[in-house]
Amino acid sequence: MASFVTGAISLLVFFLIGTSSAQLCSDFYSRTCPQVFPVVRSAVYSAILNETRMGASLLRLFFHDCFVNGCDGSLLLDDTPLFTGEKRAAPNFNSARGFEVIDEIKSTIEMLCPGVVSCADILAIVARDSVAILGGPNWNVKLGRRDARTASQLAANNSIPPPTSNLDFLVSNFNSLGLSIKDLVALSGAHTIGQARCTNFRDRIYTETNNLDSIFAQLRASNCPGNTGSGDNNLAPLDLQSPTTFDNNYFNNLVNRRGLLHSDQQLYNGGPTDSIVRTYYDNPSSFASDFVEAMIKMGDIRPLTGYSGEIRRNCRRIN
Ligand code: HEM
Ligand SMILES: *[C@@H]1O[C@H](CO)[C@@H](O)[C@H](O)[C@H]1NC(C)=O
Ligand SMILES: *[C@@H]1O[C@H](CO)[C@@H](O)[C@H](O)[C@H]1NC(C)=O
């Protein structure tokens, strides 16, 4: 009797713990909407052909969705008079972009398989395809997430680390979501593509003296005026060598003290992540495989599954 009770309790505990990430799988739409893969791939391909930066912008959307109450499409909800979403939160306002590409994909998918594919899953496939199209690794994406019926501007403000973060903060922020120090370094390698605004790197290039290549700082200062408020939105590439190719040059920059953001250079600043940066700099395939592993882990952050949430018809609003 006692062992039956213990067995029943451990089964219950197993189900309670196993409700989230355990349910995602790569063949989730294999019978209900196999077209999702070619539709997303070709839409991302066209968007990148039109504007190369879009691949970076789309990859970032998945990060900004997953870090805020899990990968649940909450980032995509527009504000309404009664509701403030995440788009105008500090890390996203004037910065997160690519929402029209998601809309276009969603409307095509709704014509082919209505009510089946979540916006959260579209973000996951789009992120993978952006990386693959720009020359990075390809992998099987785990699917089966459902969409949130709410969003939180406060959580977006508080959960996405700012570029002023020090290493300790980044490590604990990632750890709180189940991501290791290695995942932190590998995922930061996403900054091998895309652009940042002057307002996010001004303090680094003007006030840091430590761990900053002065020629690089001068180059960046030429398009980022020192006084707050002027040229705030001027852009610079996160990877000065190859900003439109998903390669390991980001780590080369860090080793040469040419990280653009304070948070980037923190990963190579005499601390415990230096050796990981070195490994990825020396060995592009170890970066590629650790990046894939970390993207899958990030995609597993608290998804809604089963009967939780919904499959939104329009990614911008709840049904
Ligand atoms: C480790 C902590 C991180 C910090 C502090 C951080 C911060 C930033 C900042 C400040 C920007 C520039 C935004 C702007 O100026 O408008 C940026 C851009 C970007 N971030 Fe991160 N990020 C982090 C991690 C990540 C991760 C994990 C990913 C994806 C896996 C990612 C992908 C990107 C991409 C691709 C861009 C360029 C976007 C574009 O050009 O539109 N970042 N990040
Ligand atoms: C192409 O990119 C430009 C910005 O470079 C943008 O304004 C335009 O809307 C894009 N067109 C399409 C069809 O995506
Ligand atoms: C989030 O940050 C933005 C920009 O700093 C601010 O305007 C907004 O009030 C913040 N939202 C909350 C709920 O704290």
Number of strands: 2
Using the CA coordinates, give the radius of gyration: 20 Å
Figure out the total of helices. Answer: 14
The global form is: globular
The CATH class designation of the largest domain is Mainly Alpha
The percent of residues in helical segments reads 40-55%
Order of helices and strands: HHHHHHHHEHHEHHHH
* CATH fold name of the largest domain: Peroxidase, domain 1
State which percent range the strand residues make up: under 5%
Structural class: mainly alpha
The major sheet is characterized as: 2 strands, antiparallel
Poorly predicted regions: 1-21
N/C terminus separation: 48 Å
CATH architectural category of the largest domain: Orthogonal Bundle
* Domain unit count: 2
Assembly type: single chain
Order of strands across the main sheet = 1-2
Rounded mean pLDDT score: 94
Bound small molecules, deduplicated: protoporphyrin IX containing FE, 2-acetamido-2-deoxy-beta-D-glucopyranose
Note the topology.
Elements: H1 2-17, H2 36-50, H3 54-66, H4 99-112, H5 119-133, H6 153-159, H7 167-175, H8 181-188, E1 195-197, H9 198-207, H10 214-221, E2 235-237, H11 249-255, H12 262-265, H13 274-282, H14 284-299
Antiparallel strand pairs: 1-2
The structure holds protoporphyrin IX containing FE (HEM) and 2-acetamido-2-deoxy-beta-D-glucopyranose (2 copies).
Residues 89-90, 153-154, 157 line the site of one 2-acetamido-2-deoxy-beta-D-glucopyranose (NAG).
Structure, explained:
With 319 residues, the protein is mostly helical. It folds into 2 domains: 25-160, Peroxidase, domain 1 (Orthogonal Bundle); 179-297, Peroxidase, domain 2 (Orthogonal Bundle). 47% of the residues lie in helices and 2% in strands. It is built from 14 helices and 2 strands; from the N terminus they run ααααααααβααβαααα. The protein has helices spanning 2-17, 36-50, 54-66, 99-112, 119-133, 153-159, 167-175, 181-188, 198-207, 214-221, 249-255, 262-265, 274-282, 284-299, and strands at residues 195-197, 235-237. The chain starts with a helix and ends in a 20-residue tail after the last helix. Protoporphyrin IX containing FE is lined by residues 53, 56-57, 59-60, 63, 95, 97, 161, 163, 165, 170, 187-188, 190-191, 193-197, 200, 238, 261, 263.
